[in-house]
Fold this sequence. Notes:
Strand order of the largest sheet: 21-13-18-11-8-9-10-23
Strand content: 15-25%
Largest sheet: 8 strands, mixed
Distance between the termini: 58 Å
Shape: globular
Number of domains: 4
Low-confidence stretches: 1-6, 60-71, 74-80, 138-150, 288-294, 299-320, 337-365, 375-424
Helix content: 25-40%
Mean pLDDT: 74
Radius of gyration: 28 Å
Structural class: alpha/beta
CATH topology of the largest domain: Spore Coat Polysaccharide Biosynthesis Protein SpsA, Chain A
CATH architecture of the largest domain: Alpha-Beta Complex
Amino acid sequence: MKPEPASxxxxxxxxxxxxxxxxxxxxxxxxxxxxAIAAALAAAKAERPGMLYWNARIEATPPGRIRFGRAGLDxxxxxxxxxxxxxxxxxxxxxxxxxxxxxxGEADFPRAVALLARAPGLGAVWCExxxxxxxxxxPPPLTLPQGxxxxxxxxxLAILVHSPAASVEPFFAALKGQVLAGGLDVLxxxxxxxxxxxxxLTRLINLATAADPRMKVRRYAISGPLAPxxxxxxxxxxxxxxxxxxxxxxxxxxxxNAVQRLADWALSGDAAAACPRIVFDRRLVAAGLAxxxxxDGAESVVAWDDLKLSAELRTAAAPAxxxxxxxxxxxxxxxxxxxxxxxxxxxxxxxFAHGPKGRTYxxxxxxxxxxxxxxxxxxxxxxxxxxSLQTHAMAAIRExxxxxxxxxxxxxxxLVALPGASGSGQAAFxxxxxxxxxxxxxxxxxxxxxxxxxAFVDGLAAARDRGAVAVRIVDETALPGDSRALQExxxxxxxxxxxxxxxxxxxxxxxxxxxxxxxxVRNAARRDGIPVLCHLDDDILGLPATLGIERYRxxxxxxxxxxxxxxxxxxxxILAATPALAQRLKAGAGHDRVVAxxxxxxxxxxxxxxxxPKTRLRIGYMGSASHDHDLAMVVPALNRVLAAYDGVxxxxxxxxxxxxxxxxxxxxxxxxxxxxxxxxxxxxxLSELAFDIGLAPxxxxxxxxxxxxxxxxxxxxxxxxxxxxxLGPYAAIVEAGAALGARPQAWxxxxxxxxxxxxxxxxxTGRADQLLTERYGWDKLEQEVLAxxxxxxxxxxxxx
Length: 800
């Protein structure tokens, strides 16, 4: 295997196949590279694959690595970073890209790799035994136009109100919580509304949007038997921006980034349209459309409506029902949507020429919920005779009468508006500022939730109540996505405004991974001499794929991983939630400026329930969707005890209730939705659910061994006897007699013991009360957090 000296690329000759790579792979198992590739091709039974790839060590300073290989080429990684040091592409595939003008030549090899990595249906083979290295410090620049990291700073949102009974209030209430990169041009298309209905609709819109300066609303009344496809074309024609999101008023966004992320994907170079996964009545009704070959061999778009679709699916897109995003110019050039006479779904009559192989594929991952009474899969009305945007669409539009003056927005959250920021840069939580507190703390977090509440809100509640401490928390949603659209000045302005408002003595970065925000925080802290404390309650650089593909992809982003590594190195002090996590972070940070909380979890003995005996004993499990793999471990045991005991039921609390493992539980099951944005409200709700037995299974993997015992503390405070996996954070609790431990094969036996022995349950809850008082009290947690804040202040003053 000899490289040709005149070429910047190396040639790999394997049998009759020729592959090109920028760097020869390292061989791990003693074989030659050609032999390793030949073995991989034989094992995969691949015919003329377009790409080979192998394991990659993504290295940074301090030393660290992210494994990449067996799981396959990740489109998000391919868009964010040059992966050409761990891939090879077939010579014919490269020549086709050159002939089409997609790449200029061999020097443009990283771009060719990025294009092919996102090509649908590409034959790609993983080569075991080979390895490459990527340097995060000096990534070669990619020149991809508008990759998925691109952010739509201004976008058009077109909302279809197809019946007078459809209220827009739920939709706009959900829209209020959306994270947007910039302005929003809102089109409301009211179908078959009379003048009185238009006035009422206008009133509701003004009421919902008056307090949101991000939105500019235009309203159009449309009459006639128009099919949804035709209305989509009208909306595209009326849009004022390149990124357009179209939504039915009955289909509301659930995830906070749904609208913005769909627009960003629609702007990307390889996406024609994108839609979220849509749920109705607790089941998936649509994950959109996907490309497929029709009988004559031509590609068309087909409907996907299958409960087997999982979170890993990222090639579903377009509307079914209406909630999707598109690029306006490509849509119009392709002729828009066309009617599919064979069924209720729509087909897209476009095959764009800007993507690999002369077309695009379709993507989507966010969640929306259909709140209408009927299943949203009806065929709709008949289409008009033709599909002209310029004649039919504009003739059907008339502007409604002017409405009354806007009135203030009803309701509201706990957000504190950033002065002078035009609605952006809000705080997720804030005490009152200016403050005379002795200690003022400004926290920048990934996403405000239980982690920050436990350490800095509820964990410091006593000190905050007596006026000794004041806290403000700003999370990453205050800024647009961490992409090329984000300007350094924008992040710096946000940080400076919050510094001016709070005058903090300590800045905390909690689970932060936003590179632009971290640079602004670091620069401001150095300029003003403010110490920076890094707070982590998980090994976020070691996040396993079992927690969910979306979280895993985010954690694996090289930009985000490098940012976390830089924070660990540059922070004045690291506060770890557990001693075990502290040891892990010391190794990654390369220094000893690390302190640990004794447990990272807290609670107080709850009042034991004294109600009359219940007719049913309740086994409870609470958690987020990321714990589906943990619940899966105990589902067989739950099914067996539910079949064996008539008076036993299972209650599921949180987003875990809608996950695949939860649907496999057979018998008496109650489901309770999550409580968002209020951690103490979540704990009160947990107590109200009156679990007799609380389950805390953990899969045995390194990530879980570094976690806190928060779930046990929450169950204990709610008065539930807890059955746990006796590893990591729970091992000492089992040893202290405050929980019952069960190995994977012993969950059924543990459940039977607790069901049949009220005395055992009372013993466990009584010992749990003692342990909460002795080791896990809120006062102890507050002392430890305050000590860490004082230590970082003292260290900074000493260094100065």
